[in-house]
Design brief:
Elements: E1 2-4, E2 16-19, E3 22-25, H1 30-40, H2 52-55, H3 60-75, H4 100-106, H5 119-138, E4 143-146, H6 168-178, E5 183-187, H7 194-200, E6 206-213, E7 238-243, H8 249-266, E8 270-275, H9 292-303, E9 309-313, H10 319-332
Parallel strand pairs: 1-4, 4-9, 5-6, 5-8, 6-7, 8-9
Antiparallel strand pairs: 2-3
Helix pairs in contact: 1-10, 3-4, 5-6, 8-9, 9-10
Bound molecules: N-{4-[(3-aminopropyl)amino]butyl}acetamide and zinc ion (ZN).
Length: 335
């Protein structure tokens, strides 16, 4: 299977993040991508499909903000990476104000996603990698792998968060829909894919299923509960399957069966898999107990759905095991 990746995806390198009350080294490091490449081999460079497919998912004012945010941060006399600290949540209006701190709050959902000088460029090429891999699948490859880094599934139409800036899976799903495919997104990252859910919340033409740590105990807390099923035309086209901390493969597998039956019932003819290896037993920020060999079984079960597969990289922070975990998953997908 082809891997799509652009070297500029390594430019994004924030130094630290706010975690449980203090600053710690940033977990979503460039070495993640290097570890995956070392295990899966040489990538294909995505071509540049431009802004149109990105703007089909994200708001123009958000995209404009992302491109200037770090420059404006420096222009305000700040140093290092840009962080927000005030948010228009809980019934406040999302006013468009000039000050960089106001805009960081306006366009983000958390304080764990610093913006560094190379963040926009890396996010842009990450989205292009997703579109490149989609192109391979639309061209007849049974499966393709988009090594998206930074990840995407926490980013909504007009907000960043959870180490994510552009929602790579959603951008690919939207482009696939525009190409006439009936798309299901299966999100198997440890964390709920709140951004993807938000983007397709009221749409009936894209199915979203997510298996993740129960948001009662885990980030992103405010999304991913079992009673969230979509609204309006999207009512019933969102499926959330939260699982408790400590879940291992034997407990995970029945949830995956449920998600795959729902996707089959929806009549999908193309699947976008938001794949996070942060369900791994050794992940430093997560609490599931999936082992390396289990990823092969997980991918085989998904591939048995029998439709073209676009695998989009999301999280996974045990850098030393990441290459083996991703390689096992891709092998189960059919190599
Ligand atoms: N103390 C992905 O896996 N960390 N994002 C919150 C909690 C955010 C993970 C800090 C975790 C985001 C793509
Ligand atoms: Zn995650």
């Amino acid at each position: 299977m082809k891997t799509f990746f652009h070297p500029d995806q390594l430019l994004h390198a924030p130094v630290q993040e706010l975690h449980n009350g203090g600053f710690v080294p940033f977990a979503e490091v460039p070495a993640r991508a290097a570890a995956i490449l070392a295990a899966v081999g040489d990538p294909v460079l995505p071509r540049d499909a431009g802004m149109a497919p990105i703007a089909a998912v994200h708001d123009g004012d958000y995209l404009a903000f992302l491109q200037v945010a770090h420059r404006d941060w420096l222009a305000a006399g700040r140093h290092g990476d840009a962080h927000g600290y005030a948010w228009p949540v809980v019934r406040r209006r999302a006013l468009s104000l000039d000050r960089i701190d106001a805009r960081l709050g306006r366009f983000s959902m958390d304080a764990s996603t610093p913006i560094a000088p190379g963040s926009w460029t890396s996010a842009y090429w990450g989205a292009q990698s997703a579109l490149g891999a989609l192109g391979a699948v639309l061209g007849g490859d049974p499966a393709a792998f988009a090594l998206c880094r930074p990840p995407g599934h926490h980013a909504g139409r007009d907000y960043l968060g959870g180490y994510c800036f552009l929602n790579n899976a959603a951008i690919a799903a939207e482009a696939a829909t525009a190409a006439g495919r009936r798309v299901a997104i299966l999100d198997v990252d440890y964390h709920h894919g709140n951004g993807t859910q938000d983007i397709f919340w009221d749409r009936g033409d894209v199915f979203f299923a997510s298996i993740h740590a129960d948001p009662r105990t885990d980030y992103p807390f405010f999304w991913g509960h079992a009673d969230e099923v979509g609204e309006r035309a999207g009512a019933g086209a969102t499926l959330n399957l939260p699982l408790p901390q400590g879940t291992d493969w034997t407990q995970y597998r029945p949830a995956l069966d449920r998600a795959l039956s729902a996707i089959r019932a929806f009549g999908a003819d193309l699947m976008v898999v938001s794949f996070g290896a942060d369900t791994f037993a050794g992940d430093p920020i997560s609490q599931f107990r999936i082992e390396t060999a289990d990823y092969r079984a997980m991918a085989r079960q998904i591939a048995a759905a029998g439709m073209p597969m676009l695998v989009v990289m999301e999280g996974g922070y045990a850098v030393d095991a990441l290459g083996a975990n991703v390689a096992a998953f891709l092998e189960g997908m059919g190599g």
